[in-house]
Amino acid sequence: MKKHISLLIITTILMSLINSCKKSNDIIPKDYSTSIKNKTWWGELAYTGKTPEYYSVHFNTDNTLTWSQFAGDFSGHWMLDKKQLTITFDANSIQIHADISEDNNLVNISDNTAASEIKSGEITTTSSVTLDNSSWIGYTQAPTKILELNFKPGLQTTINLENSPIKTYTYIQSSLSSVIRVGTMFFAIVISGSKMKGSINNAVSTWQATRQ
C-alpha cells in the first residue's frame, strides 16, 4: 500500500514538473497593436495606368486614422485581428487588408478596388522631425533631376529643381504624420530623421532626398 502511495506522489510531482515546464516554454503571442497605435506608416501606391506615388497613414489610439497622399488627407478607421490589419475609409467603401510582419512591414496586401493598388507599407522610424535650418538633397524620377530643399524658420522652404528657377514657398507640416505640403504641387513624407520621399507636379514624378 505504501509503495502505491509513494508511486502516486512521485507521479503527481513529475506531472506538475512537466506542466510547469510546458507553461514556461509557451510563446507569448506578439501584440501587433503596439506597432499600430499612435504610429505612422508609409508606403507606395499606384493608380491604374499612373506613376506609383507615396502615402502616409497615422493610426490613432481610438481606431481612427488619417491617410495622406498627394491628392489630400482622408479619414478612416482601422481594425486589428491578431496580425491582420483592416483599413476602412470614411468617404467611400474602399477597404485595405494586410498582415503585419515580424519586422513591421505590410505583407499579403489586398483591397476591394481595381482603381489602385497598395504596393508596400512599413513603419516610420520617427514621428516628427524639426526642419528649420536643414538642407536635403536628392533626385526626382521620370525624368531624373537633382533636387535640393532648404527649410527655413517660419515654415519657409526653397525648392531647387535642376534647370528650374529657385523659388521660396510656404509649407505646411503635419505634426502627427510628418507630412509636408507646398500648395498642390509638392508632397513629402519624412520617413526618418535623415530620409524624405514624396511626389511633385501632380504626382507624375516621385522623388527622394537625404538630410545633409
What is the mean predicted local confidence, pLDDT? 88
Main sheet?
9 strands, antiparallel
What is the β-strand count? Answer: 18
**Class per helix and strand makeup:** mainly beta
Strand fraction equals over 45%
Unreliable runs, pLDDT <50, ≥5 residues?
none
Account of the protein in words:
The protein is mainly beta and 212 residues long. The strands form two sheets. Strands 1, 2, 3, 4, 5, 6, 7, 8 and 9 form a nine-stranded antiparallel beta sheet that branches. The protein has a nine-stranded antiparallel beta sheet with strand order 13-12-11-10-18-17-16-15-14, with no helix packed on it. The protein contains one helix and 18 strands. The model has no long low-confidence stretch (mean pLDDT 88).
What descriptive keywords fit this protein?
212 residues, mainly beta, nine-stranded antiparallel beta sheet, 1 helix, elongated
Task: Furnish the topology, listing elements before pairings.
Blueprint: H1 2-25, E1 39-47, E2 53-59, E3 64-69, E4 72-81, E5 84-89, E6 95-100, E7 106-111, E8 116-118, E9 122-123, E10 134-140, E11 145-152, E12 156-161, E13 167-170, E14 172-173, E15 179-182, E16 186-190, E17 195-200, E18 205-211
